[in-house]
Structure formats: structure tokens, C-alpha cells
Amino acid sequence: MSSIPHSILAIGEALESRWQQYRLSGDFESYVEYSLSLDGLLDELQQLQLPGLARTCQELEAFSLPLFGDSSSHPIAPEAMEDVGKMLHTLMVELRRRETPAVSSKRSSDAEPELEPAVWSKPREVLIIRREDHPWGVALQQQLSSFGFRSALTTWESPTIPSLEPLAVVFIPDQAGFFPDTAIEVISSLRQQLQTSRLCALGVPTTLESIISLQRAGIDSCIPNDGHMVGDVLSQILETIHNFEQDQPKVLVVEDSKTAALHIRRSLAQYGIDSMAIANPSILLETLTSYHPDLVLMDMYMPICTGVEATRAMRQIPDFQVLPVVYLSSETDVAQQVEALRLGGDQFLIKPINPVMLASVVKTKIERYRDLLRLSRHDSLTGLLNHSAGKQRVDRLIRSAGKGGKLAVAMIDIDRFKSINDNFGHPVGDQVIRGLAWLLGARLRACDLVCRYGGEEFLLALPGASLEEAVKVIDNVRETFASLAHPHAKGILHSSFSGGVAALPHFVSGSTLIKAADDALLTAKREGRNCIVAARDENMSTPIPLDESL
Questions:
Q1: Owning domain of residue 322
Q2: CATH number at residue 287
Q3: Are 275 and 234 found together in one domain?
Q4: Are 193 and 156 in contact (CB under 8 A)?
Q5: What residues pair up with 222 in beta bridges, in sequence order?
Q6: What is the pLDDT along the chain (550 residues), one digit of tens a residue?
Q7: Count of domains forming the chain
Q8: Dihedral sign (CA 469, 474, 480, 483)
């Protein structure tokens, strides 16, 4: 059974506490606090890709929200109170049952739990359910094995569920493209048993009825038979492992009323949103530079200037031209609101602000802003960070490592890639690039940087890794990639890559680390390709190849 982070259980227990407060008081404000906590828990479960638990939480929210009303409708009816209590109890039982074992044991002991060593290449469990004779099962199992996953095959007729809850379950139809009559029952049953697994259905007909039927049963991803199924499955599984580790959302509140600012910050905190408040807009630009918020909540009328004037000023700075600004005001004149939006704002909220509405608007705006940033910072072919974003991340990792810290940087390049494009076509070349991107995503840790630096070249950064550790890890990936089959119309293609690695403290800046790794990569190319070379000393003009014993 998969465990969940203790932070999730802590949010659940806070939700449970706020519900108990509401049961005792019956007042509207307590129900607001409960609703905010419930939505915050659902958001965390969805972010961590815990579909079964998220569904249970969604059912509770779907029942709770229609009861919201206003202050005159509280306390809610005793029957509804009892139903909410039962649903919340079911959710908390599941959360406690899946609490991280190390944390659970600490509840009954004051001893410090042992820290697990960093895992470089961790096999992930995938369950494949198919008809006995369907060839997709074995083929998919072989592909998953190449990318570092451990999979088990079972049948629709008598599915065998492993004792360890799998990361994902892949359902394969029969050879005619249909799921067996018992499919919905089997999927629904497994959805109840496997709360944290991602359920994927392959070869789904692209009809609304088919997709909705499978989604109702508990399927998370419906993948059509379009020739890219293996790649789509890998993308779904890797997304489950490598959730983009976004920093905590941050909001800057520009509000001259301390009471109003405190109320806003308290509402945002319920959703895990960090915030900072300033009363004086004259320090707006320097605060934006130091705090780096994802959104600004801007009061319309302040002593020094208006919110519109402050927004127009910040739009003059390139870094803040697309930063969302939501105006807060008691202004009810629609013409004034439209004019304010025309001059740089993104939305207008009327005071007094409903806390649920405030949190909803803020979360939506931040998600869209981050999506926009992601599009500008990520490579469209692989989904990895692009050249400039990768270099910026290396600089941040160096600062995080601090004095005496460990960080290794690698440059890797697919060997003889031009001949692949020339002989097999660019679509096959793209497939090889994606294959390496998927392999790196599967074999490296979530904290490691994987960036498509340009063309067939990748930039990697491994925080906490020494030079020798990084070379060993990347060399293992190199061996796997060299054996990986890339099918195409004329048969099967094999490829390889070369790499260079440099590390702190031999090289002390992002630019010198990347240059040293790139120089080592050139040495690897000169020495025959399909090998890894380590750069040993910043003062040496030629990198030293890695000792063969490592």
C-alpha cells in the first residue's frame, strides 16, 4: 500500500478540527473555515496525483458546497450534519491508513526516524491488465523495463493485485479494440482498492460515451490507439512521479488597511498560499523584486497613489509586465472598473470580499500565470526546461548548495544524431530525443534538473552529488539508452550518447561548471563516443577521462 506525506494528513486533521468547531458553534464563519480547508486538501491531493483520495474528497466537497448559503442558513440541518460527518470520517480513515510509516511510528516514539539514503534509480511498480493473448502486454512490459519500471502482467478474467500498491495500472482492451463486459466492474473495484494509483486505459475509442463511461468507473487517463500509446503511457507515469515541484504560491497584498490585509492573508493561508502585505505603495517595485510574488492584490484607493497608477508603473518593468494584478475596491461603477482593467489589471473584486471567491480567483490566476511561464520556459517536444531556464536553475542550485555543498553538472549529446535524421527522417529523430528525455525522467530523482539544452543536447544537474556519484549514475543511464530499441517503419534503431561531468568545488560558478562539462563532452566525442568523461580541475585545460574502475 502506497503511503502519503505527513503534510497531507496534517491538512486533513486541520479540516477535521474545523468541522468539529462548526458542529459545536454552528456559525457561518466556522463553515467558511471548514470549506476553505476542504478545498485546500482537495487541491493538495490533486497536485500529488492521488486520484482515489481526490475522488473521495471531491464527493465530500460536492455535498458540502450546496450547503454553503449565507449566515441565515446555518447551522445546517441535523441530517446534513450527520452525512458530512460520515463522509469526512471515511476520508480521514483512508488518510490515516496511508500515512507514511516512518511518521506513523514516530507518533508512538520520541526517537528520531532514520533518514533514507538518496535513491538514484528506483524501480516503480506498474500493473498491466490485458487479455491472456494480447501482444501489447508483453511489448509494454519490455518498454517499461527499459525505462526503469518494474511491471507485472495479469488478466481481466482473474486480476491478481500485488501486495504493494502500484504506481500505475494500465488496462488493455482485447485485440478487436473493446474492453470485456466486466471491465467497468473490475476498474471500479480496483479504484476502491488502489486509492493512490494512476489508472490508464489504452486503445480507448474516441467517443464521448466510451471516455465518460471509463472515467465514471475510475479511469484517470484515456489513451487512444494513435500510434503513440507507449509514449503517452510513459508520459502519464512520469508525470505521476515527477510532479512539477512548484514553489509555494505567493501573493503580494498592497492594502493600506491593516485589518483588511490581515483578513486577506488569513483567507489565503487556508489554501497554503504564502502572502506579504505592504501598506505603502512607494515600496512596491523593490518588494516585487525581493519577494517574487505570483500575483498582486492591489487596493484601488490609497493615500499616495491609486492602484491603477501603481499597476501602470509596475508594467513599465519587463519582469512584471505579465504578473497578474487583481484590484480590490468598493467601487461599483462598471465604467470605472472597465477602465481600471484596461490600464493593466486582470480582475476586479468588490469589497467586502467573500473568502471563498477570493481564494478561487487567486488560485485560478496563479495557475494560468504559471502555465504561461511554463510555456515560455519549457521545450515543446520533450516538456523539459529549455536552455535559458536550465541555466537559471543551475545558478539557483549552486546558491542552494552553499559553501562546501555538493552539486554535479553534466552535458550529454546523442551520438551521430544528424545521420539518424538523414537516414530515417526527423520524426524518428524526434522519437529518439523523446526516448532519452523519458529515460532521464525515469532514472533521475525528482530534485534533479533535466534540461533540453538545444537540438540533441541535454543539461543535467544533480544536487548533493559528488563527481564520482554523478558519473556513475549517468553512465548507468548511458548503458540503458544504448540498449533501448526505437521502433520505426523500417525496423528498430539503436542509439547512444556521450557525456561530460563537472562538479563543485572544482568549478565554482554556473558558467564554469557548464563549460567544463561541455569540454569534457567534447573529449568523450573524440575518444570514440558512447562514454562519460569527468572534468577534474578548473586549472586543467583538458578534462581527465573517468577511471574505468568507477
A1: 252-375
A2: 3.40.50.2300
A3: no
A4: no
A5: 201
A6: 456 666 678 788 888 888 988 888 888 888 888 887 887 788 778 766 677 788 888 889 888 888 877 778 899 988 899 999 989 988 888 888 766 444 444 444 443 333 334 455 555 788 999 887 777 888 788 778 777 788 888 988 888 887 778 888 999 888 777 788 788 888 998 888 887 788 989 888 888 988 999 999 999 888 887 655 566 677 667 666 654 445 678 999 999 888 888 889 888 887 778 899 999 999 999 999 888 899 999 998 888 888 889 998 999 998 898 899 998 887 666 777 777 777 777 888 887 778 888 888 898 899 888 888 878 888 888 888 899 889 989 998 998 888 889 999 999 999 999 999 999 999 889 989 988 998 898 788 878 999 999 999 999 999 999 999 999 999 999 999 998 888 777 778 899 999 999 999 989 899 999 999 999 999 999 999 999 999 976 544 344 444 443 3
A7: 4
A8: negative
Cell numbers for 19, please give them.
468541522
Cα Rg of the chain (Å, integer): 27
Which amino acid would we find at residue 249?
Answer: P
Whose CA is closest to 302, among 344, 346, 268, 260? 260
- 114 found inside a domain: no
Tell me the three cell numbers of residue 110.
520520541
Helix (H) or strand (E) holding 460: strand 457-463
In degrees rounded to 5, what are phi and psi of residue 412? Answer: -125, 150
Residues 539 and 391 in one domain: yes
Copy the grid coordinates of residue 193: 482498492
Clarify whether residues 409 and 352 are in a common domain.
no
**In angstroms, how far apart are the furthest CA atoms of the chain?**
79
Residue 540 falls within a domain, yes or no?
yes
Helix (H) / strand (E) containing 350: strand 347-350
Residues 224 and 180 in one domain: yes
Tell me: do 226 and 273 sit in the same domain: no
Distance of alpha carbon 307 from alpha carbon 300, whole angstroms: 4
**Pair (414, 485) in one structural domain:** yes
Q: For residue 481, what are the contacts with CB-CB under 8 A and spacing of at least 6?
A: 435, 436, 439, 495, 496, 497
Do 237 and 256 fall within a single domain?
no
| Residue 226: Cβ-neighbour burial (10 angstroms; 0-12, 13-18, 19+) | exposed
